[in-house]
Amino acid sequence: MIVSPAQKTWGRISRGLYLLILIVGALIMVIPFLWSLSTSLKPLNQALAYPPRWIPHPFLWKNYIDTWKTVPMERWFLNSTLVSVVVVIGNLLLDALAGYALARIHFRGRNLVFFGVISMLMIPFQSIMLPVYIELRSLGLINSYAGMILPQLVSAMGVFLMRQAFLNIPEEVEESAVIEGASRWRIFWQITLPMVQPTMLTLALMMFMSSWNNFLLPLLVANKLQFWTLPLGMVMFQQQYYTNWPYLMAAAVMATIPIAILFLIFQKWFIQGISTTGLK
Q1: At CA 222, angle to CA 216 and CA 223, rounded to 5?
Q2: Which of 117, 128, 167, 258 shows the greatest Cβ crowding within 10 Å of its Cβ?
Q3: Measuring CA to CA, which residue among 214, 246, 208, 247 is closest to residue 229?
Q4: What are the TM regions of this chain, as residue ranges (predicted)?
């Protein structure tokens, strides 16, 4: 096929416009983080100045040290890490089991159960937070790590992702294993589960970010300072009539760094898991 000079020119222009749109979109996404970083390095009077200044003068790197010393940031980091890691492990196991059952095991009412799981995606946590609190209080789980972990151990989105991933695996693979005498449990652990690793990594990153940034559940469960997580702890810098914006932004930047590092390391598998989930 012969391409005319006009078509080549239009192709270059369209690619340039596409690249320009991507650059503008990326800048729009990164500007809030850059503003947080800038504010975290300012003196308080510059953070409140109008018109706002992008470049701090001077750069107060000690804001990060002061923030770490002013509040128990180390304890909150450990709490957030503990809760998030346990939540990720629980979701990888339970969501995978539920997704496999809904994808491969034929039982009466399977589609009804799946629609029930999907319907949970439309229910915001704010509408069920009171029953969750009453249940946790009746179980004696207020001011405990278990109270922050148990409500997050299973995710409707995780079950959906794993079900779609298992549906993408040809049934002939499992039929061959059945002929060889493999049990359902062995097929799940040794054959199908390794084949959905990109989706599992995607689920792990999603649940880690969700748990790491969760504010409402720790607010309900943790009344004692020693059980606070990072999102809840950052409220310490906000008072009724006064907010220490440099310290608050410094805490926000420190809380963002672990998520950013994880995504940069695993972004290839994250994108692959998202892109292959809905192929079935």
Answers
A1: 115
A2: 117
A3: 214
A4: 16-35, 76-100, 112-134, 146-166, 187-209, 247-271
Dihedral of CA atoms 86, 87, 93, 98 in degrees, nearest 10, equals 160
Residue type, 266: F
Q: Give just the sign of the alpha carbon dihedral 184, 120, 209, 79.
A: negative
The answer to whether the peptide bond before residue 198 is cis (omega within 30 degrees of 0) is no
Contacts of 272 (CB under 8 A, 6+ apart): 198, 202
For 47-63, the pLDDT digits (tens) are 888 888 888 888 888 98
- For the four alpha carbons of 31, 214, 203 and 112, in that order, the dihedral sign comes to negative
Q: What single-letter amino acid sits at 139?
A: L
- 136-181 confidence digits (pLDDT tens): 999 999 999 999 999 999 999 999 999 988 988 888 888 888 888 8
What does the angle CA 95 – CA 272 – CA 171 come to, to the nearest 5 degrees? 60
The C-alpha atoms of residue 191 and residue 186 are separated, in whole angstroms, by 7
Q: Which residues pair with 238 in a beta bridge?
A: 243
Show me where the domains of the chain are located. Answer: 72-277
Residue 110 token pair:
């399977």
Taking the C-alpha atoms of residue 215 and residue 94, their distance in angstroms, rounded to an integer, is: 23
* DSSP letter (8 states) at residue 238: B
Q: What is the pLDDT, as a whole number, of residue 186?
A: 87
* CATH number belonging to domain 72-277: 1.10.3720.10
